[in-house]
Amino acid sequence: MARILVVEDDPNIRELLQYNLEKEGFEVRTAEDGQKGLEEIETKWPDLVILDLMIPYRDGLEICRIMRSKRELAHIPVIILTAKGEEIDRVLGLEMGADDYVTKPFSTREIIARVKALFRRVQTIEKTDEEVLIRGRLTINIENYEVTLGEKKVDLTHKEFQLLYLLASRPGKVFTRDFLLEHIWGYEYLGDSRTVDVHIRHLRQKLEDDLIETIRGVGYKFIE
Amino acid sequence: MARILVVEDDPNIRELLQYNLEKEGFEVRTAEDGQKGLEEIETKWPDLVILDLMIPYRDGLEICRIMRSKRELAHIPVIILTAKGEEIDRVLGLEMGADDYVTKPFSTREIIARVKALFRRVQTIEKTDEEVLIRGRLTINIENYEVTLGEKKVDLTHKEFQLLYLLASRPGKVFTRDFLLEHIWGYEYLGDSRTVDVHIRHLRQKLEDDLIETIRGVGYKFIE
DNA sequence: ACATAAACTTAACAATTCGATAACTGGATA
DNA sequence: TATCCAGTTATCGAATTGTTAAGTTTATGT
Lengths: 224, 224
Known about the structure:
With 224 residues, chain A is α/β, with parallel strands linked by helices.
C-alpha cells in the first residue's frame, strides 16, 4: 500500500492523521519538524507527503521548494495544511508546487478523500499522459488536436473535442450534464444544460451514432 | 433535489435556514432538538445535516459521533454550527467527523455556499469510492450505471436503478414504502404508495423474483 | 479595426420513454 | 369469511431527450 509521510508539529493532529490514514490502509510515517521531515523525504521517498505550513526549522513551503528542485522527489504529491488565517500563502504555495490544500480545522473524512483523490489523479495522469487515445476505430490525438475514425480525419470544434476527449477518457463511465458543464464550461457557467445535448448531437453526426450512449435521467457515456 | 435536515433549537435561525435553502431548491426538514434530529436522521437518511452544537437532549457532537458509527449514516455530510464564544475542542470535533464548521452569526450566503461546496466535494470524491456492489450473481456498477445478473446485462430505468441500489446497499434491511418514497422520490412527494409496488414488480421481472422479498405490513428487503 | 466565417447558445417543436395512477385480482390474516 | 394488503396490468400524461434552425458571440484574417 502507499506510503504517506505526515510532517506536523502538533502531536494531536499528527496522531489523528496517522490513526485515520492507517485505518484506510495506508502506511504512515510522521515527522515533528521540517528538518526531520526533509531527511525522511530524501531517504525514504514516500508516495505522498502531508505538510503543515507552520513547522519548526524549515517551513512547509521551503520543503516543497526543495522537493521540486530535486529530480527524484519532484513528482511526489504534496498536500499542504494551513491554519484558517494563513490562506494568504495560497498563490505562493501553488508556485512552490503543492498539489492540494486543506485548511484547519478539517475533517478526517475530507483529508482522506483528498489523499485518495490525489493518488487517483496522479495515477490517471500517468496513465493518460500518452497524447493519443485509441478507442476501437477512433483515435484522439491530444497533442495535435486531431481525431480520426478509421482512416478518415474528423474535424471537430474545440467544445466538441473537449467533450469527446472527456467522455472517451473513461469509456463506460456515465457523465451527468452538470458534471460535463462544470468540467468543460467551468464552475460558474449558468446556462442551459440542453447545450450539452446539442454538442452530443454534433459529435454523433460527425462520428457514429452509437459511440455515445444516452442514459436517460442521468447523462451520457462513451461505449466501452 | 437534495434533502437537507436542519437541527437547531433557535426558531429564528431554523426558519432563516429553511427559507433560504428552499429558495435554492433544496428540500428542507427541521428538528428542534437533538433527540428529534437523531430520529429524523435515522429514519429519513437526509443527504446533508446542519447541526447546531448546543442543542437540548443530545448535543451536536454526540449526534455526529453516533452518525459516524452507523454504516448507513456514516457518509452523510455534516455541517456544525457554533456560537462565537464556544471554543470547541478542535481535535474532538475532527474526530467526530464533521465536514465543515460555521460560526454564528453567519450570513445566509455563506452557509449556502458551504452547503453547495460540500455537496460538490462529496460528489466528486466519494462517489468514485465504492463503484461496484456485488450481491451474489448480481452486480451493480454505479459509475457505469450498469446492472448484470450472471453474465446478462440488465437494462433498468433511472427509478428502478435507484430503488435497486438502495435496497441492495443494505441486504436484509427492511425498507418501508414511506422511506423509499421519501428517499428516492423526495420529502415533498405525496403519492400513492402503490407506485413503489409497481417498480418492485418491474425489478422482479427484469431480475429474479426472489431477490426482493416482501415483508407484509412493513415493506421490502433485498435478500441477504 | 473591420468584415466574415465559424462556433456556440438558445429556443421551439417533435419523438420517445418513463412513471403514476386507477382498477382489478389474488392471497394472507384475524 | 371478511378484510386488508400486496400483485398485476393497461393507459394516459409528464418528463426527458432528439433535432433543427435561428440568433448571438467569438475568432480569424486582411
